[in-house]
Amino acid sequence: MSRLFFCLFLSILISISVYGQTTSRQANLDSLRREIRALDQELYEVQLNLDQSKKQLKTGIFIATVGYTVTIIGGQLLGSNPDVGKTLLYVGGATGIVGTVILVKGFNKISLKSPDPPKIYP
């Protein structure tokens, strides 16, 4: 009879131990899933910022190039037609500055903040 109680007691202990390990594994798996979701969200935000900044950088480069080209043409016209040359210098300079501001804003989208240091896992 004591062997029967001992076997019953031993089987109950083993089943509790297996249940505890299963619960612990499930908690670890849930934690891993949350971490993967967080990484996916962060990766999406980085890709979105890069895409938005790419468009803005292209626009800024185009506007700045046009502006500084007009400035160069205005400088060339100063000798032959000073009034038009002066006007082109001012308009081209202002357009170039606007393009440069757009470029700076595009670069600011790329890195909104300094990255957090990586987590160190035991």
Structural account:
This protein is 86% helix and 0% strand. The chain has 122 residues and is mainly alpha-helical. The radius of gyration is 33 Å and the shape is rod-shaped.
Low-confidence stretches: none
Strand content: under 5%
Structural class: mainly alpha
How far is the N terminus from the C terminus?
A: 48 Å
- The secondary-structure element order is HH
What is the molecular shape?
A: rod-shaped
The percentage helix is: over 70%
Task: Identify the notable features of this structure and list them briefly.
122 residues; mainly alpha
Nutshell version of this structure?
The chain is an all-alpha fold.
Write the layout of secondary structure elements.
Elements: H1 2-77, H2 82-110
